[in-house]
Amino acid sequence: MGTEFGRGNAAPLFGAIEAGGTKFVCGVSADPSQGLLAREQFSTGDDPERLLAQVCAWLADQERRHHPLAALGVASFGPLELDVRSPHYGRITTTPKPGWAQCDLLAPLRRAFPGRPIGFDTDVNGAALGEGRYGAARGLEDFVYITVGTGIGGGGMARGALLHGLVHPEMGHIAMPRLDDDTFEGTCPFHGRCWEGLCSGPALAQRTGMAAEQLAPDHPEWDRLARYMGYALATLTCVLSPRRIVLGGSVRKAGALGEAEFFRRIRSELASALGGYIASPHLRAPLLDEFLVPPKLGDNAGIVGALALAQDAYARASRTH
Amino acid sequence: MGTEFGRGNAAPLFGAIEAGGTKFVCGVSADPSQGLLAREQFSTGDDPERLLAQVCAWLADQERRHHPLAALGVASFGPLELDVRSPHYGRITTTPKPGWAQCDLLAPLRRAFPGRPIGFDTDVNGAALGEGRYGAARGLEDFVYITVGTGIGGGGMARGALLHGLVHPEMGHIAMPRLDDDTFEGTCPFHGRCWEGLCSGPALAQRTGMAAEQLAPDHPEWDRLARYMGYALATLTCVLSPRRIVLGGSVRKAGALGEAEFFRRIRSELASALGGYIASPHLRAPLLDEFLVPPKLGDNAGIVGALALAQDAYARASRTH
User: Fold this and answer.
1) Position B10 pLDDT exceeds 80
2) How far is it, in rounded angstroms, from Cα A105 to Cα A92?
3) Four-way CATH pick for B136-295: 1.10.10.10, 3.30.420.40, 2.60.120.280, 3.30.70.20
4) pLDDT tens digits, one per residue of A158-201
5) Strand pairing partners for A152?
């Protein structure tokens, strides 16, 4: 019918935005497992109104080239207002990022694409949904997605639903033990030596004077980093009991040490930190290799996750009508 | 109909077992908000077969006095096998408790009450469900229930579903920071100074030589305990983003210091540990008083939770038929 979008002969087309602190990635796809029909990116900058106008114009152009968008998905840096009952639903709330505090991400999209359902969640919940539907956590109802890069963030599912709550998880800011020989006070302006304050890319750079990519494979910092990662992932395992942890972000690539070796060390430290308390074969070798894994969607995790949010918004709206 | 239990004129009657490491509490009720029709308790001991036979006999006697049980609920100490697809579903798994490892809690109930649906979950998820339906977390879809007593355990809901996963949460064993002046190595045989190793009743007793109830209100240990509790609850808040934390167990009563004052200090330490990072009014005074609260069901939390598991099993079975 003419007034229903994406219900023609063609498969419904989805538009998505991965809203990051550095860049906004936009994409359209009818089937994310088959890749994107088009992809574009824009610098985030400090003028949300202008940027969102560019994003809407690009998406509208895609409609003209292909066919109308059936739904949209937005996976964004935060903190976000995710409570649909709140008058501020759809906003970035208290970010220190110039220009972006209290920015309403959804209003311009609603104006540009009236009637189209819009899925909205955190960047890490988006990536979690993408990895759950098309990547490393396929078919699992209880899992965690972590990114360790400029900051540390986590999202995930419990019993098949993305983790929300009072606000949304801020897993990078959990309290951490101190290793005996460690005097580093951490880089987090709020908590000093929380997980992000100890293990993010900037924390590693401040400790060593080098970016992760430049660190020699025998640098002692890799082992310390692996120990802290082990403690943090053990804490997540105790709180959430995930069936899998997908560990993404740039730090995990571990430069000259290599991703495979870094994961091997983190798995070993995770098992040590758990101390054999949780009696599951998935938390011991060899199955531990499938418990803690890198993402499968690579650099597309964010935009594929945002497309998955669009798919879910479309499915919800279809059930309602 | 004659073959359907609890579908007569009377409201369906539920039977429940709160299976603890020290005692098993049994109860029957048609409406837990109105209390129990009958309640009995048995020492746990080291002979599960004999104990479960006593429990079944008591429940069968209740059927004769009232009317047939429509469903049963079991909330148990663990670790438990909660995966309904596992051939070991319904068992206590690796407990060091003599006689109880690999004990199948549900088989004797299935034999004694054929055809009756049985809800099964951890003691803390049971208590969480009870507090969520009838107590301090009424109406919330995302919350945590913590007990601090002989051990520390946690359960809760995310998006309205009890937390399960690979096994089930073991929140008492999260990694903890060390306070500067603290040399205590903790009491946990697996992790030393995890949350349980630092803040459980036995940890407090080992530090001070006294039980919590005997500690003077000006004993410095109360402040240290409150600080550690603040860190642990901040970590849970970062991982799960609960809308409320219900803190139960014996230690929270805080002897001569008093529950209200102990909660006041823990709330203050929780806010300090979060450092203002999560911008929600619920994490600041005065709403923080409603974020961290004691349970409302008191000593009945466990058995009411087990009854709520029975209600849910009954509702699921009714939807299926």
Assistant:
1) no
2) 7
3) 3.30.420.40
4) 999 999 999 999 999 999 999 998 999 999 999 999 999 999 99
5) A148
